[in-house]
């Protein structure tokens, strides 16, 4: 297996980074064993690539700390290779405005624009929205000033409670209290296919690690898949292998199981 696999795709939240560790710094939430696994993969000629729902500016320092320069962000709406963003897709300003009008009827949530300038807070009725770069509360007309990848809705019980009527868009749960709204035609899977083309590889040379609903599509883009022990049941049912929880050396143990390290 080690000779065959050349790239390993990793989700962040709940996969590389623990939900149990209270820190706004991603690196503090990555188990030591997972960092050891990433280093060992590189030593064995396997390139680790981040695939996350978070927008690029949020994860740049994180991937740099992990010595990575190739990653997929914003659920596949941004691809960075060799430290350069090589592909992106943005929402039209009129679509963003229409979404904000729809979402005003949803109570007890925070709404964030994930943009090229970082996270832009539109309004906050949730105790969970603490990480944002700019606030335009009370001045939503400024939303058109930003180049937006997707919208993030933060709160409790989002699945089934938050939806959009805008054509060509979808709502996807990406973390226990986070739901993203993004173009229907873009996903972690479509981004992985683009990334494999850039790397000159095919799906038989790739493995993916995930834990959440937005990783289901990603699992369909590679031949080998690993669901974390803390993953949702639907992901475990489709995975090649179910490893331990992220906090119980799940990444390291899976890499050992497949003979990658």
TrEMBL record:
Protein's organism: Eubacterium maltosivorans
Molecular function GO labels: magnesium ion binding; phosphatase activity
Cited Pfam families: Hydrolase_3 (PF08282)
Protein name per Swiss-Prot or TrEMBL: HAD-IIB family hydrolase
Alphabetical keyword list: Hydrolase
Listed InterPro entries: HAD-like_sf (IPR036412), HAD-SF_hydro_IIB (IPR006379), HAD_sf (IPR023214)
A Gene Ontology term for the protein's cellular component: cytosol
């Amino acid at each position: 297996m080690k000779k065959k696999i050349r790239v390993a795709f990793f989700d962040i939240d709940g996969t590389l980074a623990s939900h149990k560790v209270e820190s706004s710094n991603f690196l503090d939430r990555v188990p030591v064993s997972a960092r050891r696994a990433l280093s060992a993969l590189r030593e064995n000629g396997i390139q680790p690539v981040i695939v996350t729902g978070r927008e690029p500016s949020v994860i740049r320092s994180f991937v740099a700390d992990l010595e990575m320069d190739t990653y997929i962000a914003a659920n596949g709406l941004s691809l960075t290779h060799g430290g350069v963003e090589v592909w992106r897709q943005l929402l039209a300003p009129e679509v963003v405005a229409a979404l904000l009008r729809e979402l005003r009827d949803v109570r007890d949530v925070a709404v964030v624009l994930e943009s090229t300038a970082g996270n832009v807070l539109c309004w906050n009725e949730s105790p969970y929205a603490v990480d944002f770069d700019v606030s335009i509360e009370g001045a939503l007309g400024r939303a058109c000033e930003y180049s937006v990848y997707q919208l993030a809705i933060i709160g409790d019980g989002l699945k089934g409670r938050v939806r959009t009527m805008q054509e060509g868009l979808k709502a996807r749960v990406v973390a226990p209290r986070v739901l993203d709204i993004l173009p229907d035609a873009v996903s972690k899977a479509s981004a992985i296919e683009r990334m494999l083309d850039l790397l000159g590889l095919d799906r038989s040379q790739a493995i993916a690690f995930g834990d959440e609903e937005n990783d289901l599509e990603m699992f369909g883009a590679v031949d080998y898949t690993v669901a974390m022990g803390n993953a949702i049941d639907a992901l475990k049912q489709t995975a090649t292998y179910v490893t331990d929880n992220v906090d119980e050396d799940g990444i390291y143990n899976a890499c050992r199981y497949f003979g990658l390290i």
